[in-house]
């Protein structure tokens, strides 16, 4: 199982990629948001780690070349937007056939159901933004939005907003940590820093869930099926 932990460890990725770490971060963010099989790749933790290792002193302490912070600030949101747009296009193009496959190690139907419930619960705009901060849902939300016929122009607008908020906040947090911490002790701060930002990012989702629960909105029947699918007019509102 060591290989699995390596795939989830952002520092492993950055160390393996070496001089190509900056480009590698861009590619991983694109794959994690645009390709269904990319759901297992690190997202939040990778962005925070990339921000940390954009500090020259920290990167040198880890034995890798420092990542280009300007390239990250510009390139990662573009890749996040492009990946999500690809996912939405695939959802529109193939519909539910995109998910018509048996469960395997790399695909679980429950991920699709979870993303669909997320979409139904928060509505198209908020779902596209909030999903950025939720692993796995972040990957499956985009094709699900396409399958549920969220208009392309509206998806693009909230996709851009969500990508900017998600990417830039995590990169800036990491960059701040990298410039504020003793490079010799950076290992002690990476995991706590990543955990903190993930926890903070989930607060809006918890707040929205509490609001819906208090409002008495039952989105599913006892057997887990939705009362109804959102219509095209619902999504456009």
Provide keyphrases for this structure:
globular, 237 residues
How many helices?
12
Spell out the helices and strands N to C. HHHHHHHHHHHH
Share in β-strands: under 5%
Helix content: 55-70%
How would a crystallographer describe the biggest sheet?
Answer: none
CA distance, first residue to last residue: 46 Å
| Average residue-wise pLDDT | 78
Structural class based on helices, strands and sheet pairing: mainly alpha
- Ranges where pLDDT stays below 50 over 5 or more residues in a row are 217-234
Oligomer: single chain
* Shape call: globular
What is the number of beta strands?
A: 0
Description:
39% of the residues are buried. By secondary structure, the protein is mainly α. It has helices spanning 2-8, 10-17, 21-34, 44-52, 56-61, 69-94, 109-122, 124-130, 137-147, 152-180, 187-214, 232-236. The radius of gyration is 18 Å and the shape is globular. It is built from 12 helices and no strands. The longest helix is centred in the last third of the chain and has 29 residues, at 152-180. Helices cover 69% and strands 0% of the residues. Mean pLDDT is 78; it is low at 217-234.
């Amino acid at each position: 199982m060591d290989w699995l932990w390596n795939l989830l460890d952002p520092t492993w990725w950055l160390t393996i990629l070496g001089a190509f770490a900056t480009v590698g971060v861009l590619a991983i963010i694109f794959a994690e948001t645009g390709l269904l099989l990319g759901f297992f790749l690190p997202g939040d933790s990778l962005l925070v780690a990339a921000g940390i290792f954009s500090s020259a002193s920290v990167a040198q302490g880890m034995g890798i070349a420092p990542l280009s912070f300007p390239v990250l600030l510009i390139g990662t949101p573009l890749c996040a937007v492009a990946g999500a747009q690809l996912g939405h296009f695939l959802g529109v193009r193939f519909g539910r056939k995109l998910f018509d496959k048996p469960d395997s190690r790399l695909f679980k139907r429950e991920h699709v159901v979870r993303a669909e419930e997320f979409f139904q619960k928060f509505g198209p705009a908020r779902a596209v933004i909030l999903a950025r901060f939720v692993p796995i849902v972040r990957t499956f939300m985009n094709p699900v939005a396409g399958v549920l016929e969220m208009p392309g122009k509206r998806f693009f607008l909230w996709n851009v907003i969500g990508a900017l908020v998600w990417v830039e906040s995590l990169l800036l947090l990491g960059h701040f940590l990298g410039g504020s911490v003793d490079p010799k002790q950076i290992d002690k701060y990476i995991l706590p820093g990543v955990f903190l930002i993930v926890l903070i990012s989930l607060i809006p989702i918890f707040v929205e869930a509490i609001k819906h629960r208090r409002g008495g909105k039952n989105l599913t029947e006892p057997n887990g099926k939705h009362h109804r699918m959102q219509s095209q007019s619902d999504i456009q509102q």
